[in-house]
Amino acid sequence: MNPLRGLTFAMGSVLLVSGAQLGMHWSMTRLPLPAEWLAALSSGQVDLAALGVVLAAILAYALSMLCWLLALRDLPLGRAYSLLSISYALVYLLAAALPLFDEPFTLWKSLGVALVILGVITINSRPAPATSPRNTP
User: Fold this and answer.
1) Residue 35 CA, distance from chain mean position
2) Whole-prediction pTM value?
3) Which residues of the chain have pLDDT under 70?
């Protein structure tokens, strides 16, 4: 087990999934409902940039899952899973900070984000207990 490598992959997963969420939100505010895409494409009424961002976001989700699987090799599940919570905080903070998303910045939401981050820090601040080597047949 290599905790630093696991942390790196976990944070890569967090960044990719956060970017995917923001990209999906941006795109879906500019596209028709998915059931209407074929008709809209035929009539040329689809924002191709928004459709491209949807496809990039799907790729980011796939890469995020790959990073997550690699992180699970090196981190205890409780620690790794807590790191995923950072994406909730990151998405809110970026959506509130970037005018592109028009997300209201509120004290209560910010307090919630602070509590999430405090929880992640609390869970990950103590060294992980030593684990026994994996059983091999």
Assistant:
1) 25
2) 0.82
3) 128-137
